[in-house]
Design a protein that fits this description.
The protein is an alpha/beta fold. It has helices spanning about 30-35, 50-60, 75, 85-100, 120-135, 150-160, 215-235, 250-265, and strands spanning about 5, 40, 65-70, 105-110, 140, 165-170, 205-210, 235-245. The chain has a single domain (about 5-275), classed as Alpha-Beta Barrel (TIM Barrel).
Length: about 290
């Protein structure tokens, strides 16, 4: 399974009656989600590290083929330079690895908007220390605009490739494709950044911020299906996470991409969700 498709969360209550059974209790949602998608972003870990007991519960509710892809906590990534946080980052990895075992997917480091290429040496020290500590994959998401200019972009790609690490590709084009603002009610707005659709090394992660209107995503997802097909054919492993300012639309947008990949004949496994019977009161957006 070299292509894994998922969403940013697993417990969105608005999925009841469509993605989940209408009467699904909150405590069952991880299990239900893991039998519909292949992976999930661990965004909650960004705000607090789960205990060993919580990680054990996550494992008990999910098949072994499922993958959690946690984000490095903000106390490590967003409090200043990374170098002083190297020991804490190593302890974080050890804790997650002990707790999740085979279910631990790639970990990703999201850097704050103020972390510019000027801090490149600090980032290099952190990444080198990560690689000395473990062979587990780490992917980096940068948000300062200068990382997307030719020189810094090339230097970061070279560093990641040399260390056999990867880069997170953030695609926000859909939500900025018109005059409307689908993020108006969202306190954590995604940045408007250039697309850097480059797979560094043998692993890629894409975070696609979709629009609630499926027609605003369609041509972009078709482009991604073509790119993913090419990456998979070249031997790259791909994780693709679907976001949306209105999360009720994320599963349907993910399914749209899955169907495009299948229509292209891409080497992808079936989406587990498609093997389940539709919910009796399934709303139109999920058909």
């Amino acid at each position: 399974m070299r292509f894994r498709l998922g969403c940013a969360v697993w417990g969105f209550q608005g999925w009841r009656g469509a993605f989940f059974p209408a009467d699904a209790p909150q405590h069952s949602m991880l299990g239900l989600y893991s039998r519909r998608m292949m992976a999930v972003e661990g965004n909650s870990v960004f705000y607090g590290i789960p205990s060993s007991e919580v990680l054990s519960k996550w494992c008990a509710q999910t098949p072994e083929s499922f993958r959690f892809c946690p984000k490095i906590p903000k106390v490590i990534s967003h409090e200043g330079d990374l170098t002083p946080e190297i020991p804490q980052a190593q302890r974080f990895f050890d804790h997650m690895h002990r707790g999740l075992g085979a279910r631990l997917g790639p970990i990703f480091l999201q850097l704050p908007p103020g972390y510019s290429p000027h801090l490149g040496p600090d980032l290099a020290r952190f990444l080198n220390a990560w690689r000395r500590h473990t062979a587990h994959p780490l992917l980096v998401e940068v948000r300062h605009p200068r990382w997307y200019t030719d020189g810094p972009a090339a230097r970061l790609d070279t560093l990641l490739d040399r260390l056999s690490l990867g880069r997170v590709v953030l695609d926000t084009r859909a939500i900025y494709s018109g005059s409307d603002d689908p993020q108006a009610d969202n306190p954590r707005k995604k940045p408007k950044l250039p697309l850097h659709a480059v797979a560094v090394g043998s692993l890629a992660m894409v975070r696609f911020i979709s629009h609630p209107d499926p027609d605003r995503n369609r041509h972009l997802l078709h482009q991604w299906a073509t790119t993913i097909h090419r990456w998979l054919t070249a031997g790259t492993e791909v994780y693709f996470f679907m976001h949306c300012p209105r999360e009720e639309f994320s599963p349907a947008n993910a399914r749209m991409l899955q169907r495009m990949l299948e229509e292209q004949g891409a080497p992808v496994s079936p989406l587990p969700w498609d093997s389940l019977p539709p919910e009796p009161h399934q709303v139109g957006m999920f058909r």
